[in-house]
Amino acid sequence: MPVSPENLAIYIHWPFCLSKCPYCDFNSHVREQIDEAAFVGALVAELDHYRILSGSRTITSVFFGGGTPSLMAAATVDRLLQRIARNWTFDKDVEITLEANPTSVEAGKFKDFAAAGINRLSLGIQALNDPDLKALGREHDLPEALAAIDLSRKYFARTSFDLIYARMGQSLADWEVELRQALAMAADHLSLYQLTIERGTAFYQAHEKGRIILPTEDVSADMYDLTREICAAHGLPAYEVSNHAAQGQESRHNLTYWTYGEYIGIGPGAHGRLNMDGAFHALTQHRSPEKWLAKAASAGRGTDQNHRLIRADMAEEMIMMSLRLTEGLSLAGFKKRIGEGVDCFIDQGYLQRLFELGYMERDDHHLRATKAGMPLLNSLLGRLLAS
């Protein structure tokens, strides 16, 4: 079900990394020196600015993403959470997530992050063997990854970790072994992403020159099917295209995105969706850390774009996001948010064809992609929303 309008999620972007991973197209940057105090001051200023825009709200989740937010000092996390608590009201079950890399340097800060208020850690493991970790440009090795998982369980109520599959030279059998190894360690949540070659990355250039060979589309599809099957059998079924969780352990923050709830994003390149003056607004921060910092320091906000969304834009975004969920798009939630039923915004003839092909299904409460349709979702959406 959609997050109720009075609730709000907060995303905080820390854009800095020790190195740029060759597959990464996120807004991440490597800097020799970082004025952390200046960035914290600007983040606090943005929190104050958004308090004015949002009014009094209940905060259901806070997510520190990046970049590598575990490079921040624990005192920085503490200060930001204290400011959020001053400006709004934390839900009694608030989820506060920090993304972290499992290097020994960062893992040593886990105790302090927990004391600051982090109650869920998301670890960027990515692979469970040293050669592939090196090929992916990761800073950690396998012993550090395993130690970080153990340490995270000691200090945090909830732990998730990421893996990337369909990697260079990886076979279906290789992935099954690795996935089962991961599931033996995963207590509540796994994020499992297929490696994609994104324009502008180092991998893109290498792939164009033939230096990177990925599994075939058929093998990648088999890996996807195997992932869903094995995770479900282990008690961590897919609740979204790439995310698997035990019942009740789904990422509350990400569910805000996928159910088209309201959230604010602060920090370089962060995005938000906020209801202001009776209209939904799409807000985007300056991507450049330096440009964002200069504007946030001088004006109290680093906003680059603020678009008032029309109903058709909102409908398209909500359909695209919610169909990523295994449960699909809530028909009642859609009508409540958009003001009209979903049938007004999709190609009915094409939808009927998808029903006949077994790629989509509908009941009294939800419209959803089937098991067969989910891997094809991106290509299906283009035509489904063409009207």
UniProtKB/TrEMBL annotation:
SUPFAM superfamilies: Radical SAM enzymes (SSF102114)
GO cellular component terms given for this protein: mitochondrion
InterPro entries linked: Coproporphyrinogen-III_oxidase, Elp3/MiaA/NifB-like_rSAM, HemN_C, HemW-like, rSAM, rSAM_sf
Limits of the Radical SAM core domain: 2-237
Signal peptide: none
Annotated SMART domains: Elp3 (SM00729)
PANTHER family: COPROPORPHYRINIGEN III OXIDASE, RADICAL S-ADENOSYL METHIONINE DOMAIN-CONTAINING PROTEIN 1, MITOCHONDRIAL
Full protein name: Radical SAM family enzyme, similar to coproporphyrinogen III oxidase, oxygen-independent, clustered with nucleoside-triphosphatase RdgB
Species this chain originates from: hydrothermal vent metagenome
Lineage, broadest ranks: unclassified sequences, metagenomes, ecological metagenomes
